[in-house]
UniProtKB/TrEMBL annotation:
InterPro entries: Metallo-B-lactamas, RibonucZ/Hydroxyglut_hydro, WalJ/YycJ-like. Gene3D superfamilies: Ribonuclease Z/Hydroxyacylglutathione hydrolase-like (3.60.15.10). Transmembrane segments: none annotated. This is Beta-lactamase-like protein. PANTHER family: EXODEOXYRIBONUCLEASE WALJ (PTHR47619:SF1), METALLO-HYDROLASE YYCJ-RELATED (PTHR47619). Residues 11-213 form the Metallo-beta-lactamase domain. It comes from the Bacteria.
């Protein structure tokens, strides 16, 4: 299995995951033109994508999902709540996943959805398994539940949100209502919350940690790295901070 980010942050998110014979795109918060450029940079043909998974209806995840699905006749998998929240658009093929979590197999790739607390209608995140390897994905969640901690045990690679530093958020330019939203239980994970989650996982076994959805206003790469180092010095060496404006390199899992 391997994966890469096509961009991560509040201005757009998309992630590719593939294993033998199967290629999946998680979210597309970019215009078609922008997505094509980013796919080219990682040498992926748009027509080679088998399934598009959608985590939730926020614009930074859904912007180019429906246009991509129609043009390339790609099946979209999402929860009923997310599909309704965007107005139940007509697309060539749709598979509705239970908002409580569900496992689906496509070729050799096992995909498990699981629910997360976020201010969307029925948001979920995903765990991927292939050839005995596990890739966990967790962004856009306001807090960590015991269920989520259990799902993310034993990951070989993890894409994890470290959205904000609480102090920068408190002192920053966001209006109070937005600040409360981001910091709330249905907002985004702070560096501290993510570090606590890592501490509750067997993090020495995580061969690659990709830090996602980092706020450009309320966080800083140095603070992110310090938070990871606080959990495990060696994990910091295996950490990649994903960028908003460009795709990452392919990461093996
Ligand atoms: Zn988001
Ligand atoms: Zn969101």
């Amino acid at each position: 299995m391997r994966f890469c980010s096509l961009g991560s942050g509040s201005r757009g998110n998309a992630t590719l995951v593939e294993s033998a014979g199967c290629r999946v795109l998680v979210d597309n918060g970019f215009s078609l033109r922008e997505l094509y450029q980013r796919l080219r940079s990682v040498e992926v043909e748009p027509n080679s994508i088998d399934v598009l998974l959608l985590t939730h209806e926020h614009g930074d995840h859904v912007k180019g999902v429906w246009s991509f699905a129609r043009r390339h006749r790609v099946e979209v998998w999402t929860t009923p709540g997310t599909w309704r929240a965007v107005g139940a658009p007509q697309i060539p093929a749709l598979r509705l996943l239970s908002g409580q979590g569900q496992s689906v197999k496509i070729d050799g790739l096992h995909i498990r959805s699981y629910p997360v607390p976020h201010d969307a209608r029925e948001p979920c995140q995903f765990l991927f398994e292939a050839d005995g390897r596990r890739l966990g994905m967790l962004t856009d969640t306001g807090c960590v539940t015991p269920h989520m901690t259990e799902i993310l045990q034993d990951c070989d690679a993890l894409i994890l949100e470290l959205n904000h530093d609480p102090e920068l958020l408190r002192r920053g330019p966001y209006p109070p209502s937005l600040r409360r939203r981001v910091a709330g239980d249905f907002g985004h994970l702070s560096n501290l919350q993510a570090a606590r989650l890592l501490d509750a996982l067997p993090h020495r076994a995580i061969a690659r940690l990709c830090v996602a959805h980092v706020s450009e206003t309320n966080n800083h790469p140095e603070l992110v790295r310090a938070s990871i180092r606080g959990v495990c010095e060696s994990l910091a060496d295996r950490t990649l901070i994903l960028e908003q404006d460009q795709a990452s390199a392919w990461c093996a899992c």
